[in-house]
Amino acid sequence: MMKKIVFLGCGSMGEAILSGMLAAGVSPQSVVVTVRRPERANELASRHGVTALASNEEAGANAQAVVGAGVVILGVKPVGIMELCREVASSLESEAVVISVAAAVSLEQLEGALPAGQPVVRSMPNTPLKVGRGVVALSAGSSVDEHHLAAAHEVFDGSGVVLDIPEDQQNAVSAISGSGPAYAFYLAEAMAAAAENFGLAPEIAQILARETVAGAGIMLAEPGANATLLRRAVTSPNGTTEQAIASFDRDNLPGIVLTGAQAAAGRAAQITEELGRN
Length: 278
Ligand SMILES: NC(=O)C1=CN([C@@H]2O[C@H](COP(=O)(O)OP(=O)(O)OC[C@H]3O[C@@H](n4cnc5c(N)ncnc54)[C@H](OP(=O)(O)O)[C@@H]3O)[C@@H](O)[C@H]2O)C=CC1
Ligand SMILES: O=C(O)[C@@H]1CCC=N1
Fold this sequence. Notes:
Blueprint: E1 4-8, H1 12-23, E2 31-35, H2 38-48, E3 51-54, H3 61-66, E4 69-74, H4 81-88, E5 97-100, H5 107-112, E6 120-124, E7 134-140, H6 146-157, E8 160-164, H7 170-178, H8 180-197, H9 202-220, H10 227-234, H11 241-250, H12 253-276
Parallel strand pairs: 1-2, 1-4, 2-3, 4-5, 5-6, 7-8
Antiparallel strand pairs: 6-7
Helix pairs in contact: 7-12, 8-9
Bound molecules: NADPH dihydro-nicotinamide-adenine-dinucleotide phosphate (NDP) and (2S)-3,4-dihydro-2H-pyrrole-2-carboxylic acid.
NADPH dihydro-nicotinamide-adenine-dinucleotide phosphate binds at residues 8-14, 34-37, 40, 55, 62, 75-78, 80, 84, 101-103, 124-127, 178.
């Protein structure tokens, strides 16, 4: 049987990873999750068939969960993650691979809160892992060997593309693929609002925007797909799309996206610094 996989914290991101992992064939019997609220624990247990513990109900839930675990995924918010590391430190197996999904929390900060020599991997996943189309970037800590890194890859391999990157690129990755699903959803929201502005019924507006962004995403997911070529295929010379793209260019949509991504990466750097002061 596969060694136990533990999620300490299982909200939006944790559940997306969990869903992708189970869909890829991992047995729910090998998974234990912890959350704070009992109602959330019950929800996860009944939805996925995993063992779920609530730390508000059982004070030692996190420490209890990591005993005997081969992989421990830290799925909590950056604030509180170091406290969580210290809470479970003495219960971790020395060979357990600790994978943080937290934006902005450095390997140095994580390693400082865990036992010396603990293998730690910093990751930046995204929620499309839930549907098998995620992207995850991994950066290995100082005690990670090839077996530990392979174990981290194995967590995500069945539900998306896994990349190995230097840690100093993590904030940039976070600003593109970590936050990126929100940018795509925001575009869908803006398209629906534009449709309503034309006088279309709200439910029709939602369908048009949702199906269009989803359909375009599926086309982009085809092997060898190229966003520029796909865009050009819609843009007839002297046609209608051309006018919309020209308007987006005049309003500098690429510049707007760049400034937004820079703001996201800047916030990550700020969070790292704030955590360092605690
Ligand atoms: N959301 C995203 O798209 C992405 C998020 N991330 C990272 O993922 C991490 C989690 O974010 P997200 O999933 O959005 O946040 P959520 O608030 O949705 O999830 C946090 C989870 O942690 C649980 N939790 C908090 N404290 C404890 C504790 N002490 N012990 C056990 N469980 C605890 C919460 O339980 P309860 O529900 O009971 O309160 C909840 O299940 C963040 O660090 C973020 O940077 C990274 C990439 C993308
Ligand atoms: O917004 C956040 O902080 C997290 C990290 C990347 C996506 N969501």
